[in-house]
Amino acid sequence: MTQQNSHFRQLLAGVAAAGLAAAGPASAELVISNWDGYMAPDAVTAFTSETGEAAEMVVHATNEEIMGKLIASGGAGYDVVFVSSPFAEVLHNLDLLEPIDAGKVPNIVNLYPEAAALPHDPGNTFSVPYAWGTTGLCYRSDLVSPEPTSWNDLLHPAEAQVGKVTLLGTDRWLLAAGFLSHGFSVNETDQAKLDEVEADLIEAKKTMLAFDDTTFYSKLVSGEATLVHAWDGWCNYGIAENPDIKFMIPSEGSDLWVDTMVVMKASENKDGAFKFINYILDAKNHAWAAENILYKVPNKPAMESLSADMAATYPNMGMAPADLVALEQLRDVGDASRAYAKAVSAIKAAQ
Amino acid sequence: MRGHLAPHRFPEKTPRVQSPNTRSTLLMAPALLWLTALMVVPCGLIFALGFFRRGLYGGIEYTFTLENFALIVDPLYAGIFLTSARIAGLATLIAVIIGYAAAYAIAAAPRHRQPLLLFLAVLPFWSNYLIRTYAWIVLLNREGLITQGLRMLGYEGEPPSMLYTEGAVITGLVYNYLPFVILACYAPLARLNPELAEASRDLGASAFTTFRRVILPMTVPGIAAGAVFVFVLSIGNFITPALLGGGRFQMMGNLIYAQFLTANDWPFGAAISMVLIAIMMGLLTLQAIAAEKGAGEKREGADG
Description:
Chain A: It is found in: Periplasm. The complex is a heterodimer. By secondary structure, chain A is α/β, with parallel strands linked by helices.
């Protein structure tokens, strides 16, 4: 706006750029940012030996962390980034994403038809889904009786479960549990409905053990908790340790979350970036995520290559894509994200 | 040149030479540069950020505004601030009582044993803060060591729920910051001239009166230093409430963390950070003034 502001902006941009320069190499080597452990440890080296493209993987802990860097640098310094779909929408709205050139990603045909028609990006014009799933209740079937059926079993648990339930603490999912229990959309932006859900979740605090985004499944295994709000893939980690643990989607429905791969417009090697996405979409490579981190991947031949035992042990791995996309996809809520953040602060601060 | 030698020759009577000379400036330069580049400048940038708006997608819109600072008095955020102050205040009170008693005991122990006792008091500092905090989770959780211990003793009821309570958060803070209080209180207690207490008792004061009228006033600067340390570190802490409070307690540190890392509202996060820094600086300044005054009184006492 004013002269002073623009100096300040330059200063900030300079500081941000210096930080980024230190974080990522400046060469034409591909820079791929992903969550730690979300793809095969040798994926990048295998990709390089297969295609001759030099590549390096960097990690981000959260969507917000990588978004901060991408927005500050205008996307410079990164080629392929893994982000959840609402954040891919934001990057697209900011015009930071390169349109996906399907001709350069022939393996895109491996995607389920449902995965090529997701509400956030029908036709995969700027994002390619990497993993998808839902959120529901993960519980000890030997300790919870009768079995849970509704979000209210989590928010207003039966006497025996009081103090033994955990909720996800991340804004979107915490509020989604409240929205769904009232029959609202998971992308609700009406302030009155948000207030109603806020009050309900404050009430739910009295009967819960803790907010937990990372160790809820081990609390189930130890018996510290008996019923937790969980992502399907993470519930599988509990099932792996105790077969009495089960996952269910409440009768009111749930959300569909999609983690995607995007190519930055600022990339200096877009062909290389598409080659990488194509490499991941190869059925064998994409199956790695399903086999090793127990998340569903939207890749038909990859899912069909899984052994039948897998769906027997982890029933949610066998969920049909049609059932998955029947759930409401989490979308970017724009300016309402501020109201979401305030509601979550109020919930967490309430005594 | 007269400057360096004067304090040695006239340790008590001559006022301390204040004017900095070339040598001390040179010696201080690296530390000053370090502090300027890595503390003052970043704090200035954060402070400036507080006057802008959050962009729609979490970036920064360079429009001047005071709304971030105004938002701090919003009942929600003011409430979080008061909760933090209460939790930090309770942790400070408990740490001071336990820490002072421990420091008193160490100072009263035979002189040759004191280094070992002090070493034991600071020993926990040698392990990582996170690990020390996780250890409390292992102890306190419903299926944790305390519950298992109770069960071995024949307890069969519902295990006590100790983790994820305000008590657990305060316990974690006290445990982690206690060594600061012990060290801060030990220094004046160890320096205390035992003859003063003897004189007080010879003059007919009871042990309690001696403590209250002689020992305690002389060690107040140590208590203040320890208390300010614990309070300042506690009020900005976000790891302990997150791990031991299970996210059920929102303190200033958690609010700042959430603004920067989940809400992507850097300007508001910057504004709260600045308020927190202002509180810390205010308290540290008060403590420094109190210490200076205490030292001044002592000097006068020694002179007279």
